[in-house]
Amino acid sequence: xxxxxxxxxxxxxxxxxxxxxxxxxxxxxxxxxxxxxxxxxxxxxxxxxxxxxxxxxxxxxxxxxxxxxxxxxxxxxxxxxxxxxxxxxxxxxxxxxxxxxxxxxxxxxxxxxxxxxxxxxxxxxxxxxxxxxxxxxxxxxxxxxxxxxxxxxxxxxxxxxxxxxxxxxxxxxxxxxxxxxxxxxxxxxxxxxxxxxxxxxxxxxxxxxxxxxxxxxxxxxxxxxxxxxxxxxxxxxxxxxxxxxxxx
Length: 248
Prior knowledge:
Strand content: under 5%
Distance between the termini: 75 Å
Number of domains: 1
Largest sheet: 2 strands, antiparallel
Number of helices: 7
Shape: elongated
């Protein structure tokens, strides 16, 4: 229709009509392009918003897991220090609670940290990161991911060290006893008099305590990085950082 009008206007040498028709065509193209661009921008903005929401959920789960792990490490380290001090002082009265034994047998507690990272992987593989959030958010995300990598490297390193050290089962006065009703139906038993008299057992505890306290610091550092990231994703999504409660 437009082409026919332009052709007729050219035949009639009606240059005003020709100009108007061309203006209408160009305006239509420009408006169509802008509508397409707007739709594309809206779709991309929605995609980023969904990614941030999902990332926020992942980070909340990570914070929850890290809080649980750091709490466990702190509790075990505190009790283990008490056990060490009592062994040095030869103060064995009342020693031997489940908490005491757990603190002693946990000197090779080196679980991996494997948080959900599906959304992060999607963000990186899609090239979305540079347009997601702002500089504060991207810095927090980078720090957290670097922290995850660093922690796992330290876990792997300490696992190699553990293989070269004595194990709790190497001491004749530490053994397993049947314990019905427990998760694994077994309980470590320590003959504390013999343990207190053996300097190698104290050295075992000191070495293990040193390693576990180092790991506790690194888990705590990663927790701080995860909490910072959670606050950033919460700021961008308008959601509170509310990690789910977990039981030990």
